[in-house]
Design a protein that fits this description.
- The complex is a heterodimer of chains A (234) and B (210).
- Chain A is an alpha+beta fold.
- Chain A is built from 6 helices and 10 strands.
- In chain A, the strands form 3 sheets. In chain A, strands 2-1-3-4-5-6 form a 6-stranded antiparallel β-sheet.
- In chain A, strand 5 and strand 6 form a beta hairpin.
- The termini of chain A are far apart.
- Chain B has a two-stranded antiparallel ribbon with strand order 1-2.
- In chain B, helix 4 crosses helix 5.
- Chain B starts with 6 loop residues before the first helix and ends in a 7-residue tail after the last helix.
- The chains are: A alpha+beta (234), B mainly alpha (210).
- At the A-B interface, helix 1 of A face helix 4 and helix 5 of B.
Chain lengths: 234, 210
């Protein structure tokens, strides 16, 4: 057979593409549920990390249920619109909506008998998205723990936001100053308000600024909730 | 059976492990060698994924080699590789989620790994499936071997741990030892690669240029 003829080439390419598409669709469909489960477990681990609870792979779900009491949905006016379902919400799609229409997840948690709130974050780094969670104490103003992660920041530079050394700087910081989110990241060594700001990463300036902007914009959405019964909110 | 493991076939398998190593001798696939070797675990997974993908892509291309229209052979090779990489990536996401998060974009980048296209074009297009399988496996493992050596040095010197377990005891840090942060930067992978090439060439006269 002449394998160099035009018709042979076209038929060969078409058949190959159809077969490959079928194989890939089958793989994707059959692994989907396991993958979604992993994504959920990972999200639970991230939320627990903002509560300074470390989990091993398998028991994340159990530990999550133990600490997280409710995943409420809140609107921008600070009213709780649903007692549950916040876990299913993707911050990325909510941030694309106008502020009044957003559904904001709020995780009500309990660590050693004390109420903690976990708020989700989503923003942009240098190369791609960055995201995280902030755990607040029951005064809604001091940080209990944080979690940051990224898709593809530079290893050793921007990627340092996901390390414990960077994240532990946040615990004990205050969020609001005169009703505005002041918690942020400042250039390394340029911190002027140590109660609100942490040192950025040398060489990871754009990622550090991304974390700063993410904290300000995402926590800012919750200002009505945060300023109610909050000493820092006046 | 004896034919399956003839002297020639053994050589097809073993030469890429040392004397014709894809990284240290052919200097292919360097980009991913820099990217995933800051820690040992992703390096091992990346090495094994590449070995599996090269081996199977080689077999598939070798089986198809007489039917592939010459004018679109590179496209056919690419489609086969891309499909295999996507499947491996989906499997990693389902059964080794942490590792797939760590490897992130690099799994997808296996598609562009020069070793793959190099072996498909140079070997699988002209050889029978079994030889192609051995060649692919050999090259993949040769690649994995270098990745593991580089990652070993980068992780122990850069983070003081291996596979995430602390190796250098806390007491050493208290005496003033500091992890070498430079080891975590991509350029150090090149320098370690270069040291391996240097060592290999100084041992093997055949590899030295006149």
């Amino acid at each position: 057979m002449n394998t160099n003829s035009n018709s042979y080439t076209i038929i060969y390419a078409s058949v190959m593409v159809v077969i490959v598409a079928f194989v890939l669709a089958f793989t994707s469909a059959s692994l989907k549920s396991t993958q979604n489960k992993n994504v959920e477990l990972d999200k639970m681990k991230q939320i627990l990390h903002a509560l300074n609870v470390d989990t091993k792979d398998q028991d994340a779900e159990k530990v999550y249920k133990q600490y997280v009491k409710a995943d409420q949905i809140m609107n921008a006016a600070g009213e709780v619109v649903a007692e549950t379902g916040g876990f299913k919400i993707e911050m990325k799609s909510e941030l694309a909506k106008p502020l009044e229409k957003r559904q904001l997840p709020l995780y009500l948690c309990e660590v050693e008998g004390k109420t903690k709130y976990v708020l989700p974050l989503y923003g942009a780094g240098l190369w791609g998205p960055i995201w995280g969670y902030v755990g607040l104490n029951d005064d809604k103003n001091s940080v209990f723990g944080v979690y940051f992660s990224h898709q593809g920041e530079t290893p050793g530079l921007g990627a340092e936001i996901s390390t414990a050394d960077f994240q532990k700087q946040f615990s004990g910081k205050q969020v609001l100053k005169d009703g505005v989110v002041a918690l942020g990241v400042e250039k390394n060594g340029k911190v002027t308000e140590p109660n609100y700001q942490v040192d950025g990463i040398s060489g990871g300036t754009i990622t550090s600024k991304g974390v700063d902007a993410m904290l300000k914009s995402c926590l800012g959405q919750y200002d009505k909730f945060l300023t109610t019964n909050n000493k820092g909110g006046k | 059976m004896s034919q399956l493991f003839s002297k020639k076939n053994k050589e097809v398998f073993s030469s890429p492990l040392s004397m014709n190593n894809p990284i240290t001798v052919q200097v292919l696939g360097i980009c991913s060698a820099l990217a995933v070797t800051a820690k040992l675990e992703p390096a091992i997974v990346m090495g094994l994924s590449v070995a599996v993908i090269v081996a199977f892509a080689n077999v598939i291309i070798s089986l198809l080699r007489n039917t592939i229209p010459n004018r679109i052979r590179i496209i056919v090779q690419l489609v086969v590789v891309a499909a295999l990489v996507t499947i491996v990536s989906e499997i990693l996401k389902a059964y080794a989620y942490d590792v797939s998060v760590q490897l992130s974009v690099y799994v997808g980048l296996i598609i562009t790994n020069c070793i793959l296209m190099g072996r498909l074009e140079a070997f699988a297009m002209a050889n029978a499936p079994w030889e192609s399988f051995l060649d692919g496996l050999g090259n993949g493992l040769g690649y994995a071997k270098i990745l593991v050596i580089v990652a070993f040095f980068r992780e122990i010197l850069g983070s003081g741990s291996l596979l995430g377990f602390r190796i250098i005891p806390q007491a050493v840090y208290e005496w003033g030892y500091i992890n070498n942060g430079l080891m975590l930067m991509p350029p150090m992978a090149l320098i370690i690669c270069a040291c391996i090439i240097w060592y290999q060439r100084s041992k093997n006269k055949v590899l030295q240029e006149k």
